[in-house]
Amino acid sequence: MAGLKKYEAGTTFDGSMRAGECFVLSGSFRIAFGAQVVQLAAGDVATLPEGGYRVVVPHESGAVYLMAWALPKLSAAFR
What we know:
By secondary structure, the protein is mostly beta strands. The chain has one helix and seven strands. It has one helix at 71-77; strands at 2-7, 12-17, 20-33, 36-41, 45-48, 51-56, 63-68. Strands 1, 2, 3, 4, 5, 6 and 7 form a seven-stranded antiparallel beta sheet that branches. The longest helix has 7 residues, at 71-77. The radius of gyration is 13 Å and the shape is globular. The two termini are 17 Å apart.
């Protein structure tokens, strides 16, 4: 399962997510999981943990990224 996300420059938001792979297609952003902060830019791939997060997209550019999750793990959650 996958989801494409696009955010304008200067966007900041909070959310909650399942653990998954993040593929940054363009731009850059910073994502914080509590005290752990990860800076990602175009071409980066990162395994992100489950839980609450905060994303900050810099004022200089937007960001486009793809999040991917393993279907077996997700389908088990819905049983």
